[in-house]
C-alpha cells in the first residue's frame, strides 16, 4: 500500500532547468535502468522503496516512461507517466492506456505558478481535487547527495484537508524529497541513492 501511495503522490513532478544547446533537460529519469532508492520515515518506522525505469518510449507526444516500484520478485506495482519539456503527467495503469491523470507540473514553471488536477479513478472528485503551487528553488541535502531542487506545495481536498504535501525535484533525477501529511499521519520520503541506466 505504501508503494502505491508514494507512486501516486510523487510520480514525477518535472520543472524547467536552463536549456543546454542540443540537449533536452528533464526532471524525471527517462532511461531504461535508471534506479532510485528512497527511504521513508512514517510513525517512527523506516522503510526503503526502489523504483526502476523498465520501459521508455519516445513518441511524438513525449517520452512515455514505465516505472516499476519494488523488485521483480516482489510482484511490483507499476506506474506510467508522459514526460515532455512542457509537462509531466500520469497515465492510467493499463499497458495500453492513455487516459491522463494528475498533471504534476506545467512548464515553464515560475515561483507562484498554480495549477489544479483531478486524479483519475476518484469516486468523489470534489474531495480529491488538488492544487499545486511552485514555491521556488532550494538546496536539498539527501543521502544520495546535494541537489538544487524545485519546491512544489500540493494541497488536496477542501483547504488541503485530505492531504498536504511538499515535493522537491532535481534535474535528471526527479523527486528527491517528499514531506506529506495525511490526516494526523506524517511521512517523509527522501532519495537514498540514484543509479543511472546504461
Task: Write out key terms for the chains shown.
about 200 residues; mainly beta; YmcC-like fold; twelve-stranded antiparallel sheet; 1 helix; 12 strands; about 5% helix; globular
How many separate helices?
Answer: 1
What CATH architecture would you give? Beta Barrel
Number of domains: 1
What would you call the structural class? mainly beta
The third-level CATH topology is YmcC-like fold
Strand percentage lies at: over 45%
Order of strands in the sheet with most strands: 6-5-4-3-2-1-12-11-10-9-8-7
Query: What is the overall shape?
Result: globular
What level of helicity do the residues show?
under 10%
> Can you summarize the main beta sheet?
12 strands, antiparallel
Your description of this structure?
This protein is mostly beta strands. The protein has a single domain (2-195), classed as YmcC-like fold (Beta Barrel). It is 5% helix and 54% strand. It has one helix and twelve strands. It has one helix spanning 2-10; strands spanning 35-42, 45-59, 62-69, 77-83, 87-91, 100-106, 114-117, 130-142, 145-156, 163-170, 174-182, 185-195. It has a twelve-stranded antiparallel sheet, covered by helices on one side. The longest helix has 9 residues, at 2-10.
Amino acid at each position: 500500500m505504501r508503494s502505491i501511495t508514494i507512486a501516486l503522490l510523487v510520480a514525477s513532478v518535472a520543472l524547467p532547468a536552463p536549456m543546454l544547446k542540443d540537449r533536452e533537460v528533464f526532471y524525471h529519469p527517462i532511461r531504461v535502468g535508471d534506479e532510485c532508492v528512497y527511504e521513508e520515515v512514517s510513525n517512527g518506522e523506516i522503510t526503503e522503496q526502489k523504483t526502476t525505469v523498465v520501459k521508455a518510449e519516445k513518441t511524438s507526444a513525449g517520452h512515455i516512461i514505465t516505472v516499476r516500484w519494488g523488485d521483480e520478485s516482489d510482484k511490483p506495482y507499476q506506474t506510467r507517466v508522459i514526460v515532455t519539456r512542457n509537462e509531466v503527467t500520469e497515465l492510467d495503469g493499463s499497458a495500453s492506456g492513455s487516459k491522463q491523470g494528475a498533471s504534476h507540473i506545467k512548464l515553464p514553471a515560475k515561483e507562484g505558478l498554480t495549477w489544479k488536477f483531478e486524479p483519475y479513478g476518484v469516486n468523489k472528485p470534489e474531495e480529491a481535487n488538488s492544487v499545486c503551487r511552485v514555491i521556488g528553488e532550494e538546496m536539498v541535502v539527501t543521502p544520495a547527495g546535494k541537489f538544487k531542487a524545485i519546491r512544489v506545495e500540493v494541497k488536496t481536498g477542501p483547504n488541503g484537508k485530505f492531504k498536504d504535501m511538499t515535493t522537491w525535484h532535481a534535474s535528471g533525477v526527479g523527486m528527491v524529497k517528499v514531506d506529506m501529511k495525511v490526516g494526523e499521519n506524517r511521512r517523509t520520503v527522501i532519495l537514498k541513492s540514484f543509479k543511472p541506466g546504461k
